[in-house]
Write a structure and sequence with these properties.
This protein is of the alpha+beta class. It contains ten helices and eight strands.
Length: 251
Amino acid sequence: MYDLSTRKRALALVAQGRSLNSVSRETGISRSAIRSWQERLVPLPRMAPQDPGPPADHQAYAYLLGLHLGDGCISAHPRTGHYLRIACADAWPGLIRECRAAIVAVRPGIGVYDAQKQGCVAVTSYSQHWPALFPQHGPGKKHHRRIALELWQQKIVDTYPWGLIRGLIHSDGCRITNWTTKIVDGERKRYEYPRYLFTNVSADIRNLYTATLDGLGVEWSQSERGGTPFNVSVARKASVALMDAHVGPKY
């Protein structure tokens, strides 16, 4: 069914450390067919991909960095390379599309696929070089280790601060409508107002978020849970307007 060049292409992808699942998804060839070719043909030598260097699109990287710090992880492949996974709730299909687009913009031509989980999608991409692009990767949970940006990452964030803020809100934040009541002319009236909330148990990630807000002139406040800082709120009208102009609700 497949010519020799098609078989060699599939085997070359496997030789780069790709899993049979990911090669099958990319090429449309069944795993059993690829496995049989491995047994019948002389395997091609495994070649380490050339380091593609810095992110191709800095604005997309700032957004992807925010997503990664909030709901992302990097895991090693059993043979070589790493998987970047960003968890995106099924309720926000626009977020899933933006996440996929950001990965491709940061690494043009790279494969991206969705792994469906219960209530969410893990937007996944394989590369040997993801840890170099996200040096915050490490063992254990993020709030159990130090999270600090490298100088080159900070320069990107300084240039595209709203990209980082948007990524952090899209991962661990939300835009909600609060309400309160006031007595006006003897009558109790209800008032509604929007606010942005960002919730993350890592003090380092919260500090990165609030420092970036400070640089943008966005006013914020922080509340505690059990005596520990937890939620960062943006509720003042002018600051919410800034957030609406550059972030907006999830969709």
